[in-house]
């Protein structure tokens, strides 16, 4: 999925914003869940993007860990960018290794898409609005006002992560997928 999003996402206007066919997504998710072979290259890239966001939303406790939720939310309230980057790196060190590896690939994809935002209309802000709710959610349900404020803070964090991913994850993030 990520390889396809890396290949096609940068040249696709509204990637992650437009939804794939709900029926197709449901059918493909059922096939994937059953272990069946699925050739996503034959599907709309919007279906792949929708399936990927669904996959992220189904990671128990979220990829950024709901246990660290308060710490993630408070990162953007810290001083300058250097302090924010150091805080983010400390939080990343507390995540399971599998989460960190997946995050690196996710932000490698988002970086590639953002680099061509003139073409795809998906700058870091737009990407964050679409992806943030799939990366972290509060451990308990709350009022709509609290959830709205939470979503704004997490979107701001994901925008910052996207814009600074090379400094946070290392320059090699731009070549994780090799020459595709």
Structure description:
The chain is mainly alpha-helical. It has a single domain, classed as Rho GTPase activation protein (Phosphatidylinositol 3-kinase, Chain A), CATH 1.10.555. It contains ten helices and no strands. The model has no long low-confidence stretch (mean pLDDT 93).
The CA-CA distance between the termini, in Å, is 14 Å
Write down the Rg. 16 Å
Residue-averaged pLDDT, rounded? 93
- CATH topology, what is it called? Phosphatidylinositol 3-kinase, Chain A
Dominant shape: globular
Uncertain stretches of 5 or more adjacent residues: none
How many E-type strands? 0
Determine the structural class based on helices, strands and strand pairing.
mainly alpha
> Helix segment count?
10
CATH class: Mainly Alpha
Could you give a quick summary of the protein structure above?
This protein is an all-alpha fold. Helices cover 63% and strands 0% of the residues. Helix 1 packs across helix 3, helix 1 packs parallel to helix 6 (97-115) and helix 2 packs across helix 3 (45-57).
Helix-strand layout with pairing:
Blueprint: H1 2-8, H2 22-34, H3 45-57, H4 69-75, H5 81-93, H6 97-115, H7 117-120, H8 124-135, H9 144-163, H10 165-169
Helix pairs in contact: 1-3, 1-6, 2-3, 3-8, 4-9, 8-9
InterPro entries: ARHGAP20-like_RhoGAP, Rho_GTPase_activation_prot, RhoGAP_dom
Pfam families: RhoGAP
Domain Rho-GAP: 1-169
């Amino acid at each position: 999925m990520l390889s396809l999003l890396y290949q096609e996402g940068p040249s696709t206007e509204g990637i992650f914003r437009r939804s794939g066919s709900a029926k197709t997504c449901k059918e493909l998710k059922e096939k994937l869940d059953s272990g069946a072979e699925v050739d996503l290259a034959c599907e709309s890239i919007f279906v792949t993007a929708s399936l990927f966001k669904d996959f992220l939303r189904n990671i128990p406790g979220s990829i950024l860990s709901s246990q660290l939720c308060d710490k993630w939310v408070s990162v953007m309230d810290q001083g300058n960018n250097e302090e924010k980057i150091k805080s983010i790196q400390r939080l990343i060190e507390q995540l399971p290794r599998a989460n960190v590896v997946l995050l690196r690939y996710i932000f490698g994809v988002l970086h590639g898409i953002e680099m061509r935002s003139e073409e795809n209309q998906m700058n870091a802000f737009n990407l964050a609005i679409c992806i943030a709710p799939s990366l972290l959610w509060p451990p308990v349900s709350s009022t709509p006002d609290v959830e709205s404020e939470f979503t704004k803070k997490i979107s701001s964090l994901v925008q910052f992560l996207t814009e600074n991913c090379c400094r946070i994850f290392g320059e090699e993030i731009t070549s994780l997928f090799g020459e595709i």
